[in-house]
TrEMBL record:
UniProt organism field: Actinophytocola gossypii
Protein name as catalogued: Guanylate kinase
Binding site for ATP: G18, P19, S20, G21, V22, G23, K24, S25
Gene: gmk
Residues that span the membrane, as ranges: none
EC number: 2.7.4.8
Length: 202
């Protein structure tokens, strides 16, 4: 290992996005299993903490006033209102900057809007679009539960079409045909510039 290069280079920021129902959460869980040392950005949110959630692990839970301050002082790389303004969530800047400055990789999971904003605030970010194997497979995922009213399902499908149309904005597209294989493909992208910083856990 050549220490001279590694001490000066900046880590890679990988941004993962994709349509609702494509399996982002499942892929991220598999990543955590494969590489427990891989660092994921923890979003700040104004919503109430749910039973079982750990502050600083699942989310960083903050008040609306604190969130306003973070926006005003430029502490968020991106943020958005969720569910028509019921609460807000965003990506804190400082932890990511610290990782990248140390030459270590960082992974952020966001929606399309968040990915676009991160492209603007962090031009060096590597954007990965998680794609379903087919439109039919995504429709089945979004409608399979049968627990939501038709208008909600229709809205989700409309949004998914818009998100799929934006795939060319991304640096890489990974098709989620198998969660394990997809997680391994994503790790290859995350470690592209930092493969000597993490040890694979079998």
């Amino acid at each position: 290992m050549s220490g001279c290069v590694n001490d000066t280079r900046r880590g890679r920021l990988v941004v993962l996005a994709g349509p609702s129902g494509v399996g982002k959460s499942s892929v991220v869980r598999e990543l955590r299993t494969l590489y427990p040392d891989l660092w994921f950005s923890v979003s700040a949110t104004t919503r109430e903490q749910r039973p079982g959630e750990v502050d600083g692990v699942d989310y960083r839970f903050v008040t609306a006033a604190e969130f306003d301050r973070m926006i005003a002082e430029g502490e968020l790389l991106e943020w958005a209102s969720i569910h028509r303004g019921i609460h807000r969530s965003g990506t804190p800047r400082a932890p990511i900057e610290q990782r990248l400055a140390a030459g270590l990789p960082a992974l952020v999971e966001v929606d399309l809007q968040g990915a676009r904003e991160l492209r603007r605030t962090m031009p060096e970010a590597f954007l990965v679009f998680l794609c379903p194997p087919s439109w039919e497979a995504l429709v089945e995922r979004l409608t399979g539960r049968g627990t939501e009213p038709p208008e909600v399902v229709e809205r989700r499908l409309r949004t998914a079409k818009e998100e799929l149309a934006a795939r060319d904005e991304f640096d890489a597209v990974v098709v989620n045909t198998d969660v394990r294989a997809t997680a391994e493909d994503l790790l290859t992208l995350v470690l592209d510039k930092s493969s000597d910083q993490l040890e694979k856990h079998e």
